[in-house]
Each structure stands twice: as structure tokens, then as C-alpha cells.
Amino acid sequence: MRLSSTLCLITFLQFFSSQLNAVTDQPTIPQFVSNPLSDSTTNLASRQLLVKFREGSTSNLWNQILQPYEFTSTQSVYSPVKYLQAFNQQLASWQLVTFGNATRAGASFEALRNNPDIEYVAPNAAFQLQSLPNDLSPALWGLHNTGQDDGTSGADIDAELGWSIRYSAEDIVVAVIDTGIDYTHPDLAANMWVNEGEIPNNGIDDDGNGFVDDVHGYDFANKDADPMDTDSHGTHVAGIIGAEGNNGLGISGVTWKTKLMAIKVFADNSKAAYTADIVSGILYAADMGARISNNSYGAVFTDAVAEEIFNRPIADAVHYAREADMLFVAAAGNNGFSADESLKVTSPATIDSPNVISVAATTRADLRADFSNFGETGADIAAPGKDILSTVPGSEYASYSGTSMAAPFVSGAAALVAAQYPELSVEELRAVLVESAEPVEALAGITLSGGRLNLHSALTHIPSGHCPSHTATPMNHHLAGRAVYCAGSYINFCAAGSNEYIGTNYALEPVLLFESDPDFFSTTNLCAPSNTPPLLAGESQQQIYLREGETAPEPNLVATDLQDGDISTGISDSGAPQTGLAGYYLRRFSVADSSNLTAVPWIQKINVLANDAPPRLALLGPVCDFWWCDVALHSVGEPWQDPGYVGWDLLDGDLTDSVTYTPVDTSTLGVRAIRYTVSDSAGNETESGAFRLVGIADPELPLIEFENRPNGKSLHNSTPAERSTVRTYRRDNWEFDPSAYALDMKDGFQYLSLEAFNHNVDASHDGQYRVTAIFTDSDGNTAVAEQQVEIVTDTQPPVLTLNGADTIEIEIGDDFIDPGYRVEDDLDSYPRVTPGPDPDTYTEGAYTKTYQATDGSDNLSQVVQRTIHVVRSHWDHPPKRAGFGWSRVAPDTAHINASFIDVDDDIQTLELHYSDGNHGGTGQLAPASGISFDAPAHTFSASFTLIGPPGDYTFFVLARDAKGNESQTRAFTATLLPVPEPPVIESIALTVQGYDIRVSGTVSDLDGDAEELRVSSELSFTCSGVAEFECTATAPAAGDYSILIQAVDTAGNASALETLQARVSTACETAANTTHISAGRAVECGTLFTSSACAVGSGDALGSSSLWFPATSTLLESGPGYWEKVSICP
Predict the structure, then answer these.
(1) What's the sign of the alpha-carbon dihedral 690, 696, 699, 703?
(2) Considering the domain boundaries, does residue 486 fall inside one?
(3) Could you tell me the residue range of the domain that residue 51 belongs to?
(4) Which of 284, 280, 285, 176 is closest to 231 using CA atoms?
(5) Residue 1120 main-chain phi, psi, to 5 deg
(6) For 441-497, how does the pLDDT look when each residue is reduced to its tens digit (9 = 90+)?
(7) Coil, helix or strand for 743?
(8) What is the number of structural domains in the chain?
(9) Is the peptide bond prior to 348 cis by the omega test (within 30 degrees of 0)?
């Protein structure tokens, strides 16, 4: 058996790359990230678009709309035949359109998007698979953790306890939407889903679902019926869900028996999956009866607006899957950031649909895995995801890590819960899994549930009215005693008890029977329904964006319960946050039914922006990386048609219709840059407008385009004429490297290597130089181009001018915002500017700030200066926040520090305002020890102590001056924990026998975490047990000994100190020497001819030990086992 190890997450990597910001403990302010998708690279099926026509439109109309754009084919994304058949008309209008080339696809994007008969158009984006190496751990700790390999005992899903209730979900179909499954693996083969309506390998679509020979699923990537895994990721995921249990092989899945449906969306030997294939896979799974789908892939979008625009096809598919009651289990992602403290969102884990459950990863120590995304808005529940052993192709096993591994634990548990409670809706199934999570202190605030998956808790979470059910053929029911021959027949079977006809003795179709009473079976479930948890649904967006000070709209929520009906009046609300300061705020809504079953909380994340940032642009096309595009070749003289773009804004939403761009002159050869801009409702324009490079080339002959890098002239910011001449300054230790590209309609756009150039440029000497470049295409056509390079001695300093006025007046206490400067140099495009210090805006006076520029030849510009007058025009300035921090100093206690600056020195009160999201309470606190004042810094500071019952507390500090002006810190959330109950020594007993001392007793602990017994004494005690303990020691001599005993729990809490006094007395015995020998106080020590006794330890001679000549001695035990002869006992 080969074992390997990998860190795994299939990640949607769309369009382009961006580094994630590091996650820190410092408060963060929302900042707009320029790229709509993070950690990504460009991959598009550039000849295809996903087009959703308006419902009710006909295929004839579709053809008329598409005809001008030279489309080559249209294909329904999915045509349902079973559980989604009710949506056949809606899904029929969803088409994957293929065009003759990428240009035609791009040209159609803009026009189709604006067509009133089209609901939306989306690119067929490619998503990619990522894997990183990790350490091997062969133990199945996620199922049963005894503390092996430095783990924490119990940090598992309680699989063994859960299996005592149910271990089989043999009738539940779980779709693995992934890289496929090795359906021949000996630990998976028996649990593979089999399409009963399909005859294998006959080349016929027997069940009429549109897919030929789809026996175990379908390969949507390669468009065939063989979903065999050639990667390993999907097989590993499948093994975690449902590797066959109790078969004596390899491992066991969470469920021992199930039906694994293989949905392959990643092509063989490819790390990319396209949107259309993923959408088709989701719809196929739902339509063919999958109750659960596992989705271990994801994309990090810069914000929820971008995610909604670009990921709409997959979101729509997820919504359709909900209609088929399919639970959509999604990995939270491996980027290690908090969704609660970032604008970024991970999709599909955060798709706003009540059938989606997102899963974070934990370690064997019950901690969040450092790679796992987290946050109440980023993960619903956690599950083991580090060093997980499972199946891989080739009958082998390997250990992988990732949220990809955590999600299938939840999928397997969901299958068992669905089998145990078949009447649950998909929303109720999600609620059971989330609300039954085992609370883990380290996961508070890390997931919505604050806990880790617990299979046993999930299977026992709701009071069951569930009848035991049995599926078998009529004959097998008869053999098991569940059916009898119907009256007067020896062919037909009837259910025992109800006498309902269920079939003949040769029928092979299985029949489901419910046992509502002992020996009473029926085809109808006559048991009362299970007491299901309530549902809390919102019609409002769960991610909203506001400016500072704006009021969030009240969300519209409805709470329903199968038993209690509408319970919306019982919804509790943590309260609308203060939005005066930029930050991320969570508003939590919850509800419980009359049986105290709770709904999954509904969380709204309110992103308050520090400023109205400019909108963003994304460009579509075959060589695009969202905000810029590499050179796309275009034939000279042919009219240009734009491949498409998307514009959006956090506050204004989709702005694509407002995007403008510069026209393209295709009449002359060369590279042109198209610039795109868009403005929001506040008039903000894109900061660094997106651009697309278009190479206008001859249909046959190649073309060379130079760059002019020493002068900062690149392809996107200059014309061909500007780039044909280089004029730069002389410098030593610098080597001139020419830069040019070749454009050829057949061979494409190529960067020329240094071997393609011939030049004699000497950058250390003034002079005129010529650079020649040569390129020959694959047809033998040669292009030659020249560039003039002039090297001159730079004696001219840069010219530095200030933006704005030379003299500025600002009010005391206001922030100084430097208007900036401009610097120009005819030879150096990037001179350095050294500015002086900013003014102290909290002290009146005139300040001078200086600026000086230096070019690459060390020429210094003139020093320019700006005068800033800090003045006071009034004494009514509001306080300004200066500092804020908090720490939890005890489980139920938070210590908060805050400081404010007030240039009027008249702050009168500092108050801590808080709300308890768990109990609905609000309040405010005064400083713990008054307000301190630093006069030179105009700073007022205070400390607060917040103590409360367990829960999530949101708090901020407010300052108020003598005139009523107020200012506040941003809001923070802290979780206060229960105060651990210390253990109690319930009973204790002391026994002294000679020099042997024994202390025994019992310990109780309401928290159940009593860990050790601590004994302090001059004696050396050995202890065993805690709840029932025993400690023993041997005294070295007679005397009084003190013994101090405490019981201590895992949190370090100690019981009351028990003090015992043990008195050890010396033993003294007077007896015949023969008796001393028998008692072990003496030994024989005579010769061959004499019988004598000696004391043990001291060796003192005692005289005769003969029975015939008896002698008596008095022995004193002066130490353990040390006896001395004395004349009389003391």
C-alpha cells in the first residue's frame, strides 16, 4: 500500500492573480482590492459564453438574436428528466453558445448583454485545481481521536457513538463534484451509485436523460460517460464520505454504505474546470436524485458584488438544486482569512442559499487549521481537515490536508442524518447539522455554529417520530418476517399487520415498508413526524455596503416551524450596529421553537466603508487578466469589435452599462492601447483605468514593435512612433537591454530574446546608437526594425512643482492631507522625491514642509516648500479617536483601553457601550479608574472592565465633550466564556499502617474536566486516578507529616486545599525470638551448631531462636524495616 500526502483544495482560479493580505489580529478597515478574484490566473473558454434567455422565449428567437455573431452551436446547459423536470422550461433557456472565434464571442458579449430578451451573459470561466505537499499521518483521527500523534482526545466527530445509531445510508445518493472517482477501488466499488435505468456499454441512452451509458455518473469535462479519476482528489474525497466500512480493507468512510455518484468536472491531466461543466454537474446531480453534493472547490472574490456578477451561473444552479432538496456542502477555502474581517468572499461556500453549508477545517488538537478560511459569514461548521487518510486511485491510500477534506466529513454525516430522518427538508437537514455541532472554545467566532461536526449529536439532535424502515423485495420481506402470503394466495405477499399488497414472490422491484408498531408494517409512514428544528429565512441581502454614518435597511426575516407554524415574533436581534466608523459589523438574528430547538442563525454582514472608493473594471477576452489584457492580434483594416467588460462598485452595484472606452484605429500597423473607464454615482472614476492591447498586424507579414523602457514608454502608454527613439542619461554600471515584440497573425505575439537584436549601445558614453531587431516567422517571412538610442550626460535637475496652493490653512485638530506634487525630468522618468515632516495639527502655528527631487544622475531639484498654518477659529471641536485595544483577562472578563484627542481639552465623559448578542442585553460602563489626561498631547485615556455571562459582545467607546460633541471607536466583538467550575474534593480518608500512609477519596467537577491531583508533602506520594483517587507514601521515620491535596482541572482551576496530618508512631514489640522471626522482625543468624536470632536492619544479636531453649527480646522499629534491640519500649 503506497501512502502519500498532499494539501488539497480545488480552487476556482478565474481570470487573474492577486496576493492575499496577511491576516493579523489588528483591526482592519475595509479597502477595495482592485482584482475581483484573488489568487488566480487567467483561463477562459474564449469562444464560449453562457447565455440565459428570458423565460418564454423560443429557440427561433435565440437563433435570430445570435445570427449576426456567427455562432457555431448552442447547447442546453442541462435538460432535466427527473427531480428538476418542473423547471424544464426555465433551464431550457440556459444555453452554452460557441462562436467561430474568440473575437466573435467577445464582440457578441456587449450586444447580447443589452438585449432585452436575455436575462444575463457570463463568460465560461475556467477554474483550477491546487495541491501543495504536506506531512503524512496515517491515523483515522477524524473518526476516533484518542490523543494519538499529539492530538487531543475527543477532537473527532464521535463516529463510533454515531455508528451505534446508524452506520448505513445505503439509499442516499451523494454526488462528488470533483476530479472523478476511481470506481474500481476496492474500498469504494461496492458503494458506487449505479444508474438502474442504464445498461452499461451498449451505446444507448436507455433512461432517456440525455447521457449515454452514465452508469456511475458523468464526465462533463471530457463529455463522456467515464468519470474515472486520473488526479486523486475526487477519490480521496469519496473515501472520506463513504469508503465501505467493516470490510476488512483500508479505511472506513463516515458512512459505511451509501451511493457515491461521480461527477467529473476536471479534465484528465488538467487543473482546470469550466463554469458550464460545473453548472451541468450540479444540475445532473440534483436531477438524478442526489440528496447531497460535495463541492471541494472555491474562488476568492474581492467582494460580494464581484462574486454575484461573475459567479451567477453557479449560484443559479445551486438554487435549482435546492428545489430538488439537494444539500450543497462546500469547502470554506484554504486562504486562511476571516470572512468577517475582510471584503473578500469565497464562493461557492458563501452563496446565499439555504441549502448551502460551508465547512472549515480543524486539526487533531481541535484547533482551526491555519490554512482554513473562517468567520461566522465564511464557515457554518468545522470538521477534521488536517492529515486525513483516505482512498486514492490504484487501490491505494494517502493523507491529504485542506478544507477539501473537511467538507466530505459533513457530506457523509449528512447522508446518515438524511437516512435516519428521510422526511427532513434540505433546510432542516442543514439546520440539524449546524445546530448539533459540538461547541469548541477554539472555534468560537470561527464558524457560525462555534463548533465542530459531531455525528452522534446530529443523529440524536431532534426528537424522533421516525419509523424504522426497511427496503427489500417482497420475498426478502417475507423471509425477514415483515410480509406474509395474502389470504388465499401462495404467490402474492401482503405487509404483516396492515395486510397491504406489496407484490408477488418473483417481483424484483424493492418495496419500502415502515414499522410503526412491533410487527405492524405498512407502505405508509404512520409515525408522527419528527420534531424538526425551525427555519429562519431572510429576503434581504446578507452582505451590504454602507458609507460611514448611513443606516442599514432593516432586513425582512421570517421564522417558521413545522410544529409551531409562524414564529417570526420570537426572532431575537443583536441590534443594528453603530455605523459612524468604517469597519465590518455582524448583525445576528436567531429563533427557537417551543421545544427549544434553534434555527441556524441568520447573519448579516454590514461593510461600512471608510470612503467611497472608485469603481472597478474587469476585461473579458482570451488574453485578459481582468483589468488588463495582453496583445490580441487583429488584421489591419478590419473593424474592431470589443470582447467585453464588466464594471461594478460596492455601493452602486453593477455598472457595466456605464463603461466607456477609446476607439481603435485599425488602419495602420502597430500596437494600440484601448482604455476603459467607468464612474459611480458620486462621480468617482476608475483610478487606473483598465486597458487592452490590440496588435494591428498584416495578414501575412510579421511586425516588430519596440518598447522604450528607459523612458518609461511601454506598449500600453505610448505610440509606436514614441517608442522608436530612446533618449536617456549616461550612467556607469548599467547595461542597455533592448526590448521588442513580434506580431504575426499565424505565430501570435512573441517577446524577442536578446539574440534577435544587434546593437552597440554603450550606456557609459555619450553618443548616438542604433538597435536592429530581426524576426522570421514560421512561413519564412522576415521583419526588420530599428530603434535609435541616444546616450547623453544629464546635467539638468528635475523640475518639481507643487499641486495646489503654496500656503494652506487648516483648522487645529484636522488631518493634514498633502495635495502632492509633480516632478518632471526629460531623461529620467522616475526621479525620487524626499518630502519633509508633516505639521503638528494639534498645535497652533505656522509650519513649513519642504520637498526636493533627485534624478538618476543625482541632480537635485530646487527645494520647494509649502507653508501650513494651523489655526483655531473656534472652541467647538469634536473629540477624535486616538487608540483602542482590548484583551480577555479572564474567561468572563474583557479589559478595554481607549484614548481620544481633543484640541479643546474638554472631554467630560468616556463610556463603553456594549450589546450582548446572545442574550439581547445592552448597557454602558464608566471607566474602571477614571479618565487620565495628557495635556501636551491633548489626549484623554481610560480603561474599562467588561464582565458578563457567556456570549458574543459587541462594544465601542464613546467620548463626549463639554459641548455635547461625540466621537467613538470602531466596534469590536469579543466572546466571553463561562467561568470554569473548579473541581471539588467530595471525600477524603487517611490511613496509616506502620510507616505506610494511604490517602484516598473522590473528586467531582461540574465541567467534567478534572485533570490531576496535586499533593504537597515532605513525603513522596504516588497517586492514581482523579475522580476516585488513591495516593500512597512510606514515611522514613516516625513523626508527624503534613499532607496538602488539591484537584486541578484542564483550565488550571483548583479545588479548596485539603490539609491532612499523618502521625507515624514507632513500633515496639516484646516477644519470643521465634515470633520475631515469623513476623519478619528478626532472622536466623546462628551457625551450623547453634540457633540464634538477629534483628532485621540493625543485626543486633537476640540470643537463642530454638523452640527448645526459648528466649525473649524487645524490638523497636526506629525506621521502616529497621529493628533495634532495646531493654524496654519507650
Answers:
(1) negative
(2) yes
(3) 44-124
(4) 176
(5) -55, 115
(6) 888 889 999 899 999 989 888 766 667 778 888 999 999 899 999 998 889 999 999
(7) strand
(8) 9
(9) yes
The set of residues, in sequence order, having a beta carbon less than 8 Å from that of 283 and lying 6+ positions away, is: 77, 78, 80, 84, 91, 317, 320, 321
Angle, vertex CA 228, rays to CA 227 and CA 230, nearest 5: 125
Q: What is the pLDDT of residue 33?
A: 28
Boundary (domain end) residue, out of 586, 609, 632: 609
Q: Is position 676 within any domain?
A: no
Backbone angles phi, psi at 419, to 5 degrees: -70, -35
Least confident of 114-123, 391-400, 476-485: 114-123
Residues belonging to the active site: 178, 233, 404
The pLDDT of 949-970, averaged and rounded, is: 88
**Distance between CA atoms of 221 and 235, rounded to whole angstroms?**
16
* Distance between CA atoms of residues 318 and 325, nearest Å: 11
Q: 921-949 pLDDT, tens per residue? A: 778 999 999 999 999 999 999 999 999 88
Q: Report the distance separating Cα 899 and Cα 910, nearest Å.
A: 9
Q: Are residues 539 and 514 in the same domain?
A: no
For strands 292-295 and 327-331, give the pairing. parallel
Given pLDDT bands bounded at 50, 70 and 90, which one contains residue 107? low
Q: Is 320 in the same domain as 411?
A: yes
CA distances from 1040 to 709, 992, 1019, 1114 (A): 92, 11, 11, 24
Q: Which amino acid is at 390?
A: S
> 511 and 494, same structural domain?
yes
pLDDT at position 7 is 42
pLDDT at 38 over 80: no
407 and 507 in a single domain? The answer is no
The reply to whether 857 and 886 lie within a common domain is: no
pLDDT at 573 over 60: yes
211: confidence class by pLDDT, cuts 50, 70, 90 = very high
156 contacts: CB under 8 Å, gap ≥ 6: 141, 142, 143, 144, 145, 384
CB 988 within 8 A of CB 999: yes
Q: Give me the mean pLDDT over the 131-155 stretch.
A: 60
pTM for the model stands at 0.67
Task: Answer whether residue 348 is part of any domain.
Answer: yes
Of the candidates 277, 191, 265, the residue with the CA atom closest to the CA atom of residue 233: 265
Last residue of a domain, one of 1064, 1090, 1118: 1064
| Assigned domain for 26 exists | no
C-alpha distances (whole Å) from 244 to each of 217, 254, 733, 1066 are 19, 9, 68, 68
